[in-house]
Amino acid sequence: MRIGIIGAGNIGGTLTRRLTALGHDVAVANSRGPQTLADLASETGARAVTVEEAARGADLVVVTIPLNRVPDLPADLFGQADDALIVVDTGNYYPRQRDGRIEDIENGLPESRWTERHLGRPVIKAFNNIYAQHLADDGRPAGSPGRIALPVAGDDPSAKATVLALVDALGFDAVDAGTLDESWRQQPGSPVYTTDKDADGVRRALAEANPDRAPEWQGSADSPGTFDAPA
Length: 231
Ligand SMILES: NC(=O)c1ccc[n+]([C@@H]2O[C@H](COP(=O)([O-])OP(=O)(O)OC[C@H]3O[C@@H](n4cnc5c(N)ncnc54)[C@H](OP(=O)(O)O)[C@@H]3O)[C@@H](O)[C@H]2O)c1
Known about the structure:
Elements: E1 2-6, H1 10-21, E2 25-29, H2 38-44, E3 47-48, H3 51-55, E4 60-63, E5 86-89, H4 95-99, H5 103-106, H6 111-119, E6 124-125, H7 132-137, E7 149-152, H8 157-169, E8 173-176, H9 199-208
Parallel strand pairs: 1-2, 1-4, 2-3, 4-5, 5-6, 7-8
The chain binds NADP nicotinamide-adenine-dinucleotide phosphate.
NADP nicotinamide-adenine-dinucleotide phosphate is lined by residues 6-12, 29-32, 51, 64-67, 69, 72-73, 90-92, 94, 128, 131-132.
Protein backbone atom coordinates (compact mmCIF):
# COMPACT_ATOMS: atom_id res chain seq x y z
CA MET A 1 0.00 0.00 0.00
CA ARG A 2 0.95 3.65 -0.42
CA ILE A 3 0.94 4.90 3.16
CA GLY A 4 1.28 8.50 4.34
CA ILE A 5 2.33 9.10 7.93
CA ILE A 6 1.70 12.56 9.38
CA GLY A 7 3.81 12.82 12.52
CA ALA A 8 7.26 11.28 12.88
CA GLY A 9 7.61 11.03 16.65
CA ASN A 10 7.29 7.98 18.89
CA ILE A 11 4.40 6.38 17.01
CA GLY A 12 4.98 7.89 13.55
CA GLY A 13 8.65 6.93 13.59
CA THR A 14 7.83 3.42 14.75
CA LEU A 15 5.16 2.92 12.10
CA THR A 16 7.54 4.26 9.45
CA ARG A 17 10.11 1.64 10.46
CA ARG A 18 7.66 -1.25 10.77
CA LEU A 19 5.62 -0.50 7.63
CA THR A 20 8.64 0.01 5.36
CA ALA A 21 10.02 -3.29 6.71
CA LEU A 22 6.78 -4.93 5.54
CA GLY A 23 7.39 -3.54 2.04
CA HIS A 24 4.89 -0.68 2.01
CA ASP A 25 5.59 2.53 0.10
CA VAL A 26 5.75 5.03 2.98
CA ALA A 27 5.83 8.83 2.86
CA VAL A 28 6.41 10.53 6.23
CA ALA A 29 5.91 14.15 7.30
CA ASN A 30 6.30 16.30 10.40
CA SER A 31 5.69 19.97 11.20
CA ARG A 32 9.23 21.19 10.53
CA GLY A 33 9.59 19.91 6.97
CA PRO A 34 11.14 16.99 5.07
CA GLN A 35 14.70 18.27 5.48
CA THR A 36 14.45 17.36 9.20
CA LEU A 37 13.52 13.75 8.35
CA ALA A 38 16.60 12.85 6.29
CA ASP A 39 17.93 10.38 8.88
CA LEU A 40 14.61 8.51 9.20
CA ALA A 41 14.29 8.43 5.41
CA SER A 42 17.79 7.03 4.87
CA GLU A 43 17.33 4.49 7.69
CA THR A 44 14.00 3.17 6.38
CA GLY A 45 13.70 4.00 2.69
CA ALA A 46 10.57 6.05 3.41
CA ARG A 47 10.16 9.30 1.50
CA ALA A 48 10.39 12.46 3.62
CA VAL A 49 7.66 14.79 2.39
CA THR A 50 5.42 17.70 3.37
CA VAL A 51 2.14 17.09 5.18
CA GLU A 52 0.22 17.80 1.96
CA GLU A 53 2.37 15.32 0.02
CA ALA A 54 1.84 12.64 2.68
CA ALA A 55 -1.92 12.95 2.14
CA ARG A 56 -1.76 13.06 -1.66
CA GLY A 57 -2.15 9.81 -3.62
CA ALA A 58 -2.04 7.58 -0.54
CA ASP A 59 -4.23 4.53 0.03
CA LEU A 60 -4.01 5.05 3.78
CA VAL A 61 -2.86 7.99 5.91
CA VAL A 62 -1.96 7.73 9.60
CA VAL A 63 -2.43 10.95 11.56
CA THR A 64 -0.19 10.61 14.61
CA ILE A 65 0.44 14.02 16.12
CA PRO A 66 -0.46 15.45 19.54
CA LEU A 67 -4.23 15.92 19.67
CA ASN A 68 -3.95 19.65 20.38
CA ARG A 69 -1.98 20.08 17.14
CA VAL A 70 -4.69 18.58 14.92
CA PRO A 71 -6.32 21.99 14.34
CA ASP A 72 -2.93 23.23 13.00
CA LEU A 73 -3.05 20.81 10.06
CA PRO A 74 -3.81 22.46 6.71
CA ALA A 75 -7.51 23.15 6.19
CA ASP A 76 -9.00 20.81 3.61
CA LEU A 77 -5.98 18.47 3.86
CA PHE A 78 -8.06 15.62 2.44
CA GLY A 79 -10.30 17.75 0.19
CA GLN A 80 -8.85 16.34 -3.04
CA ALA A 81 -8.39 12.81 -1.69
CA ASP A 82 -9.98 9.78 -3.29
CA ASP A 83 -13.18 8.57 -1.60
CA ALA A 84 -11.42 5.29 -0.85
CA LEU A 85 -8.65 6.92 1.21
CA ILE A 86 -8.46 5.42 4.72
CA VAL A 87 -7.43 7.77 7.55
CA VAL A 88 -6.14 6.23 10.79
CA ASP A 89 -6.07 8.27 14.00
CA THR A 90 -3.71 7.18 16.80
CA GLY A 91 -4.53 10.16 19.00
CA ASN A 92 -5.19 10.37 22.73
CA TYR A 93 -6.53 13.21 24.86
CA TYR A 94 -4.04 14.24 27.58
CA PRO A 95 -5.76 17.39 28.89
CA ARG A 96 -3.67 17.86 32.05
CA GLN A 97 -0.28 17.05 30.51
CA ARG A 98 -0.35 18.39 26.95
CA ASP A 99 -3.63 19.16 25.21
CA GLY A 100 -5.46 21.55 27.52
CA ARG A 101 -9.14 21.31 28.29
CA ILE A 102 -11.32 20.63 25.24
CA GLU A 103 -14.97 21.17 26.17
CA ASP A 104 -16.53 18.92 23.52
CA ILE A 105 -14.43 15.99 24.68
CA GLU A 106 -15.04 16.78 28.35
CA ASN A 107 -18.76 16.74 27.52
CA GLY A 108 -18.53 13.23 26.11
CA LEU A 109 -17.54 13.52 22.46
CA PRO A 110 -15.14 10.62 21.76
CA GLU A 111 -11.74 12.14 21.07
CA SER A 112 -11.47 10.55 17.63
CA ARG A 113 -14.84 12.08 16.67
CA TRP A 114 -13.34 15.45 17.61
CA THR A 115 -10.30 14.74 15.42
CA GLU A 116 -12.53 13.48 12.60
CA ARG A 117 -14.47 16.78 12.65
CA HIS A 118 -11.25 18.75 12.34
CA LEU A 119 -9.98 16.54 9.51
CA GLY A 120 -13.32 16.59 7.69
CA ARG A 121 -12.85 12.93 6.94
CA PRO A 122 -13.95 9.67 8.64
CA VAL A 123 -11.21 8.09 10.75
CA ILE A 124 -10.41 4.65 12.07
CA LYS A 125 -8.99 4.68 15.62
CA ALA A 126 -6.05 2.29 16.04
CA PHE A 127 -2.60 2.02 17.65
CA ASN A 128 -3.63 4.50 20.36
CA ASN A 129 -3.54 2.05 23.26
CA ILE A 130 -0.03 0.56 22.93
CA TYR A 131 3.28 2.15 23.91
CA ALA A 132 5.38 3.02 20.87
CA GLN A 133 8.24 0.84 22.15
CA HIS A 134 5.93 -2.17 22.40
CA LEU A 135 4.60 -1.48 18.90
CA ALA A 136 8.22 -1.51 17.76
CA ASP A 137 9.37 -4.64 19.59
CA ASP A 138 6.49 -6.89 20.64
CA GLY A 139 4.81 -7.99 17.42
CA ARG A 140 4.65 -11.78 17.02
CA PRO A 141 3.55 -14.19 14.27
CA ALA A 142 -0.15 -15.08 14.18
CA GLY A 143 -0.92 -17.94 16.56
CA SER A 144 1.88 -17.12 19.02
CA PRO A 145 0.77 -17.70 22.63
CA GLY A 146 -0.04 -14.43 24.41
CA ARG A 147 0.14 -12.41 21.19
CA ILE A 148 -0.83 -8.81 22.07
CA ALA A 149 -4.13 -7.66 20.57
CA LEU A 150 -5.07 -4.13 19.50
CA PRO A 151 -8.60 -2.71 19.27
CA VAL A 152 -9.67 -1.01 16.03
CA ALA A 153 -12.77 1.21 16.01
CA GLY A 154 -14.48 2.91 13.08
CA ASP A 155 -17.64 3.25 11.06
CA ASP A 156 -16.67 2.05 7.57
CA PRO A 157 -16.49 -1.78 7.55
CA SER A 158 -14.24 -1.95 4.52
CA ALA A 159 -11.75 0.64 5.85
CA LYS A 160 -11.78 -1.08 9.22
CA ALA A 161 -11.11 -4.47 7.60
CA THR A 162 -8.02 -3.00 5.91
CA VAL A 163 -6.73 -1.63 9.22
CA LEU A 164 -7.49 -4.89 11.04
CA ALA A 165 -5.41 -6.71 8.41
CA LEU A 166 -2.58 -4.18 8.78
CA VAL A 167 -2.54 -4.66 12.57
CA ASP A 168 -2.26 -8.42 12.04
CA ALA A 169 0.56 -7.98 9.51
CA LEU A 170 2.42 -5.86 12.10
CA GLY A 171 2.32 -8.79 14.51
CA PHE A 172 -0.73 -8.15 16.68
CA ASP A 173 -4.14 -9.77 16.92
CA ALA A 174 -6.73 -7.27 15.74
CA VAL A 175 -10.03 -6.87 17.57
CA ASP A 176 -13.00 -5.07 16.02
CA ALA A 177 -13.92 -2.56 18.74
CA GLY A 178 -17.12 -1.30 17.09
CA THR A 179 -17.98 2.09 15.66
CA LEU A 180 -16.18 5.34 16.37
CA ASP A 181 -18.92 6.21 18.86
CA GLU A 182 -17.70 3.17 20.84
CA SER A 183 -14.06 4.25 20.68
CA TRP A 184 -14.15 5.74 24.20
CA ARG A 185 -13.74 2.11 25.27
CA GLN A 186 -10.07 2.28 24.22
CA GLN A 187 -9.29 5.83 25.39
CA PRO A 188 -6.72 6.66 28.09
CA GLY A 189 -7.80 5.34 31.46
CA SER A 190 -9.79 2.46 29.97
CA PRO A 191 -8.91 -1.15 30.91
CA VAL A 192 -7.44 -1.80 27.46
CA TYR A 193 -5.15 1.26 27.55
CA THR A 194 -1.44 0.28 27.52
CA THR A 195 -2.19 -3.06 29.17
CA ASP A 196 -1.00 -5.36 26.33
CA LYS A 197 -3.81 -7.91 26.61
CA ASP A 198 -4.43 -10.82 24.24
CA ALA A 199 -7.54 -10.92 22.05
CA ASP A 200 -9.85 -12.42 24.70
CA GLY A 201 -8.50 -9.95 27.24
CA VAL A 202 -9.09 -7.01 24.90
CA ARG A 203 -12.69 -8.11 24.23
CA ARG A 204 -13.33 -8.42 27.98
CA ALA A 205 -11.66 -5.09 28.70
CA LEU A 206 -13.68 -3.28 26.02
CA ALA A 207 -16.90 -4.74 27.46
CA GLU A 208 -15.94 -3.68 31.01
CA ALA A 209 -14.95 -0.10 30.09
CA ASN A 210 -16.69 2.73 31.93
CA PRO A 211 -17.88 5.73 29.89
CA ASP A 212 -17.26 8.14 32.77
CA ARG A 213 -13.93 9.92 32.38
CA ALA A 214 -11.89 9.47 35.57
CA PRO A 215 -10.79 12.72 37.26
CA GLU A 216 -7.13 12.29 36.28
CA TRP A 217 -8.24 12.25 32.61
CA GLN A 218 -10.32 15.42 32.92
CA GLY A 219 -8.90 18.84 32.16
CA SER A 220 -8.87 21.59 34.77
CA ALA A 221 -9.02 25.37 34.44
CA ASP A 222 -5.19 25.38 34.62
CA SER A 223 -4.65 22.71 31.97
CA PRO A 224 -2.34 21.99 30.38
CA GLY A 225 0.57 21.51 32.69
CA THR A 226 3.33 19.17 31.57
CA PHE A 227 3.91 15.41 31.66
CA ASP A 228 6.11 16.01 34.73
CA ALA A 229 3.62 18.35 36.39
CA PRO A 230 0.08 17.75 35.10
CA ALA A 231 -2.38 20.58 35.80
N1 LIG B 1 4.04 7.80 22.59
C1 LIG B 1 3.29 6.70 22.65
O1 LIG B 1 3.74 5.63 23.13
C2 LIG B 1 1.89 6.76 22.11
C3 LIG B 1 1.18 5.56 22.07
C4 LIG B 1 -0.09 5.55 21.51
C5 LIG B 1 -0.66 6.73 21.05
N2 LIG B 1 0.01 7.89 21.17
C6 LIG B 1 -0.66 9.13 20.68
O2 LIG B 1 -0.30 9.29 19.32
C7 LIG B 1 -0.13 10.69 19.04
C8 LIG B 1 1.33 10.93 18.64
O3 LIG B 1 2.12 10.62 19.77
P1 LIG B 1 3.71 10.55 19.74
O4 LIG B 1 4.13 10.11 21.09
O5 LIG B 1 4.18 9.80 18.52
O6 LIG B 1 4.05 12.10 19.54
P2 LIG B 1 5.48 12.80 19.52
O7 LIG B 1 6.56 11.81 19.77
O8 LIG B 1 5.38 14.01 20.39
O9 LIG B 1 5.60 13.26 18.00
C9 LIG B 1 4.72 14.17 17.46
C10 LIG B 1 4.98 14.29 15.97
O10 LIG B 1 3.91 15.10 15.43
C11 LIG B 1 4.49 16.06 14.57
N3 LIG B 1 3.60 17.21 14.47
C12 LIG B 1 3.15 18.03 15.47
N4 LIG B 1 2.35 18.96 14.95
C13 LIG B 1 2.30 18.74 13.62
C14 LIG B 1 1.66 19.41 12.55
N5 LIG B 1 0.86 20.47 12.75
N6 LIG B 1 1.86 18.93 11.30
C15 LIG B 1 2.64 17.85 11.09
N7 LIG B 1 3.27 17.17 12.07
C16 LIG B 1 3.10 17.63 13.31
C17 LIG B 1 5.81 16.41 15.21
O11 LIG B 1 6.63 17.01 14.27
P3 LIG B 1 7.71 18.11 14.71
O12 LIG B 1 8.65 17.40 15.66
O13 LIG B 1 8.34 18.53 13.43
O14 LIG B 1 6.93 19.22 15.38
C18 LIG B 1 6.28 15.01 15.63
O15 LIG B 1 6.89 14.36 14.54
C19 LIG B 1 -0.56 11.44 20.30
O16 LIG B 1 -1.93 11.75 20.25
C20 LIG B 1 -0.30 10.42 21.40
O17 LIG B 1 -1.10 10.67 22.55
C21 LIG B 1 1.28 7.93 21.67
